[in-house]
Amino acid sequence: MNVLVVGGAGYIGSHCVRRLLAAGHRPVVLDDLSLGHAESVPAGTPLIRADMADAEALRSAVREHRIDAAFHLAALADVGESVREPERYRLHNVVKAAAMLDVLEAAGVRRFVFSSSCAVYGVPPRVPITEDMPLMPVNPYGRTKLEAERRLEIAAGAGRASYVALRYFNAAGAASDGSTGEDHEPETHLIPLAIGAALGRRPPLTVFGTDYPTPDGTCQRDYVHVEDLADAHVAALTRLDRPGTALALNLGTGRPHSVREVIASVERAGGRPVPHAFGPRREGDPPALYADASRARAELGWSPRFTDIEAIVGSAWRWHVSRSR
Ligand code: UFG
């Protein structure tokens, strides 16, 4: 299929492009490069530099490349920033996303894979998290993801579109061939910050909170390899062959890892210490978030290939070391 990957120069988008190519599809990237990197797009893959809501750019992309389906990964995704700038998050993640979907639907594109987040659940009543748990996001980022899911649900209900919303847990790791990895600036995520601290490229890591009701007092998360996330997008594309598809699916390994465990894993991967200090909790961090991904297995035949935190952290370590900064 010819697949428009909106946000295809970003961290997860650029891995999706590689997996689409490997599966024999033809990706076309549309990205404004405000957060993504042109060099993350493989040579030979068309890159259209445009705003995601640029109607003319979208229409001509659909026409010129005979687009069959779209992946939407062009969101702002920094939880702390969303608390400080909720209007900007709503404008980008909800209003512009809806404008883009309007244009694509009108141009005849009816199949969507949407990059959603476990942030739609907020603080879940139990773990592991299943898709039928209450959707009660606790920050503007999570609320915008939920609103965008609702937009797709409405289109599907009206028979205008089919979609799969993929609720990622903590995306981590880098491409197995070393061609691309996680490159955010500013960086807020645990694994790249811990690696940067170990390499002396970033300040010592601050562990946010040691008094959580978890086995070692630090927060637990479900780190899922970015190539596994990308594989789920490709599987979702096939699932969209079935008319009326309207699905929201968790993507995680189902294995919780604490901040202390991640630090230890980075230290093993690099063979050197991660300089760190202990600080207070970060506002809005739930104690433990991990997925029950059995619905993704049932609906897509997806299960993560990287189930071991050592392998996930190891791939991130190798990519960061291979870079000059
Ligand atoms: N952490 C630290 N120190 C740091 C950075 C993070 O201790 O310097 C801790 C956090 O408190 C958290 C864990 O490491 O317990 C992971 O934090 P990240 O910032 O890497 O990831 P989050 O779990 O906060 O965020 C992820 C996704 C978001 C998504 C969110 C849902 O990156 O897109 O899960 O809760 F919204």
Q: Could you explain how this protein is built, in words?
A:
- By secondary structure, the chain is an alpha/beta fold.
- The protein has 2 domains: 2-172 and 224-251, Rossmann fold, CATH 3.40.50.720; 190-222 and 254-322, UDP-galactose 4-epimerase, domain 1 (Alpha-Beta Complex).
- It contains 10 helices and 13 strands.
- The chain has helices at residues 11-22, 55-65, 79-84, 86-106, 140-157, 190-198, 226-239, 259-270, 294-300, 309-322; strands at 2-6, 26-31, 47-49, 69-72, 111-117, 162-168, 170-172, 205-208, 220-221, 223-225, 246-251, 257-258, 276-279.
- Strand 1, helix 1 and strand 2 (26-31) form a beta-alpha-beta unit.
- The longest helix has 21 residues, at 86-106.
- The radius of gyration is 19 Å and the shape is globular.
- The structure holds uridine-5'-diphosphate-4-deoxy-4-fluoro-alpha-D-galactose (UFG).
- Uridine-5'-diphosphate-4-deoxy-4-fluoro-alpha-D-galactose binds next to helix 6 and strand 8.
Search tags:
single chain, Rossmann fold, two-stranded parallel ribbon, 10 helices, seven-stranded parallel sheet, binds uridine-5'-diphosphate-4-deoxy-4-fluoro-alpha-D-galactose, 325 residues, alpha/beta, globular
Quick summary:
This protein is an alpha/beta fold. The chain has helices spanning 11-22, 55-65, 79-84, 86-106, 140-157, 190-198, 226-239, 259-270, 294-300, 309-322, and strands at 2-6, 26-31, 47-49, 69-72, 111-117, 162-168, 170-172, 205-208, 220-221, 223-225, 246-251, 257-258, 276-279. The chain starts with a strand and ends with a helix.
